[in-house]
Amino acid sequence: MEWKEIQGERFRWINIDSPSADTINQLEAVHPFHRLALDDCLSKSQLPKINEYKDYFFIVLHIPRYLKDRKFSVPMQIAIFLGQDFLVTVHTGDLKPIGRIFEACNEESRRSEYMGNTPTYLLYRLILALADNLLLMAGKVMSNIEALELKVFDETVGAVREVTELRHDVANLRRIIFPLKRVLHELERKVQRFSSSESMEAYFGDLADTIDKVWEVIDACREVVEIYKDTDFIISSDRTNKILSVLTIVFTFSIPATVVGTFYGMNVKLPGAEDGLTFLGPHTMFYLIVTFSLICILLMVAVFRKVRWF
To answer: 198: phi > 0 → left, psi -120 to 50 → alpha, else beta; which?
Structure first.
């Protein structure tokens, strides 16, 4: 749990990492925000939204974070209080771009780059850094799809697990990015309220366009992954059908020999069973059974080809 703040020339930025109830109470003492908004900072089940109050906005955003060990993305929540002379960010600390910008603001030489304007501009830079990270994640998904393509269309291997993992990741990204896209478009229309010195609508419009591009990439990835899923299923089914066909043919071709051998294994009188035929030598009956079986197999092949079974 960390409470960090930087006082710029025009406003103050409070950055709360891994908040607790005590930290939220401390924040309430400094800024008397609405209690419901403060409680939302501790809740992990909030939907992305913008709540307008008299002197500030309360914004909740979800940003995806990729878990390498589990191979899919999960939503990380950031709660933001935006006012005329302050910006408060509350998050779990797993959003590294925010930490990097905060460290940059601690340097006197770089502070004006982020905090030399209004808190709205700093919010723009924070979301821009997160959006750039989203572009990298979308590019990673596309790379994974390209790497998986050869495996999906290779009939000798299966790619069910890889396709399922990629499908899971894409589904999670879509579930996270779609509400983010809606909130940024809404923020684009309202953000000028706390930025009187410069028009910020163009900046946030550019942010919304970036998220729209990420959404388009992820949506296209979803279509490709669905095609890969269907392709892998069809190829796997076709491979299974071929194996079953070969086994069925082998079994069918063995039927004549099995039937004849079964007859001569019975305790009944059959031609050649007792005295035996010897005109081809001592193994005449074996030769006759094999020849009869081969003739039956050839007849089966001819019939199967005529009816186009193979």
So the answer is: beta
Residue appearing with tokens 């009944």: 268
The torsion region of residue 76 among left (phi > 0), alpha (psi -120 to 50) and beta comes to beta
Q: What angle do CA 116, 76, 117 make, to 5 degrees?
A: 10
Residues in contact with 232: Cβ distance below 8 Å, sequence separation at least 6, in sequence order: 152, 158, 159, 160, 163
> Could you tell me the two tokens for 256?
């004549």
- Phi and psi dihedrals of 49, rounded to 5? -165, 170
Tens digit of pLDDT for each residue in 2-20?
888 898 888 899 999 888 8
Sole residue written with tokens 């190829």: 235
The model's pLDDT over 35-56, given as tens digits with 9 standing for 90+, comes to 999 999 888 777 889 999 989 9
Return the sign of the alpha-carbon dihedral for residues 225, 227, 231, 233. Answer: positive
Whole-prediction pTM: 0.75
